[in-house]
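The instructor's notes for this session suggest beginning with a concrete chain rather than abstract definitions. Hand out the sequence below and ask the class to guess, before any prediction is shown, which regions might be ordered.
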Amino acid sequence: MSVFTPSPHPLSAARWKGLRVGLLGGSFNPAHAGHMHIAKQAMVRLKLDAVWWVVSPGNPLKTKNPVKDFEARVKAVNAFVKHPRMCATDIEGKLKTRYTYDTIKALLTRFPRTQFVWIAGMDNACAFDRWDKWEKLPALMPFVFFDRPPAAAKLKGKRIRQHRHIAQCTKLVARPLKPSENGVFWMLSGKSVNLSSTAIRRKKQGHFAKRAESGV
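After discussion, reveal the predicted structure:
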């Protein structure tokens, strides 16, 4: 069970004052071992005090896939995490934000004395140019992408590498970040966990389909 209960709230800034917090955002439909691998790597490698699993009410980039009820996903992530310094949060729902840029701006306003780091897998880096106001995001806080499949080589030709501002502030890092170090960073995480929420959903759907065919 997390020591950070209840979960983060827009009015709980004093509780998080002076802490280094990793933000792992996603639909988590469902959460899986790949997400946990990134969260644990970030906690150790970046010397984080906590990791918030920021459950999105609805991912703008995943409109084609059916998403479970928001509250149900928050509860499922809470049940999955089971780490004393990690917690699922519905803070995007409370802030009524849908895009990462708006969420970060709101968090920086409400938690001015908390050092935030956005953490994600390399698959998010490949799609980074599809995020709303993506060119402005690295100026707000550090974005650390951990090398899990797809590998960093797949970033060749991606706009995140070509954009002048992003390319200038992109670095391979293997140490905790200083409070003033905003930008995009890569971190090699060693063993990778090749999982995706989509693959897990498809596997479950296939399992249920086979059971239906067999009459079980």
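Then share the key points. The helical segments are 33-45, 70-81, 91-95, 100-110, 122-126, 159-162, 164-168, 197-214. The domain at 13-214 is CATH 3.40.50.620 (Rossmann fold).
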